[in-house]
Amino acid sequence: MTLILKQIFAFFKLLNSDTGLNQLASGIACGLILGFAPILSLQALLVIIVAFFFRIQLGAAFLSAFFFKFIAFILDPLCDQIGRSILESPSLRPLFVSMYNMPLVPLTRFNNSIVMGSGILSLILVIPAFLLFRSLIIKYRETVVARFKGTKAWKAFAATGFYKWYATYSKLYG
Amino acid sequence: MSEKNQTPNQNPQTKRPKKKGPIRTEAVIPFVLVTAIMWVYFSLFFDSHLKAGFEWIGYQVVGAEVNIAKVETSFFKGTFRLQGLEVTNSEKPTHNLINIGDIRFGVLWDGLLRARIIVEEMAVEQIEIGSPRKRPGKVKPPEPPKPKSTEPSAVEKEAMKLKEQAIEKAKKDYSKNVLGDIAALMGGTSGDDQIKNIESSLPSKAKLREFEVEFKSKQKIWDDKIKSLPQGKEISQLGDRLSKVKTKDFKSPQELADSLNQINTILKEADDKFKQIQGTVTEVNNDLKTLENQLKEIDALVKKDIKDLESRFRLPKLDAQSLAMGLFHQYLDPYLGQINKYKGMAEKYVPPNLMKKDKNPPTEIKPHPREKGVTYEFGRPNSYPLFWIKKISASSKSNSSVNSADMKGLITNITSNQALIGKPTVLKFEGSFPGLEVRDILADFTIDNTKDDSQIGFNFNIGSYAMNGREVVNSPDVTIAFKKATASLKSRGDIVGLEKLNLKLTNQVQKMEYNISAKDKTIDEILKEVFAGVPTLSIDAEGGGYLPNDLSLSINSNIGPELQKGFEKQIQKKLDEAKAKLNAAINEAIGKEKTKIEGDFNKIKAQIDGEIKKVNDQINAEKSKAEAKANQAKKDSDDQANREKKKLEEQAKKALGKEGEKAVEDLKKKLGL
Question: What number is the ipTM of this complex?
Answer without folding.
Answer: 0.76
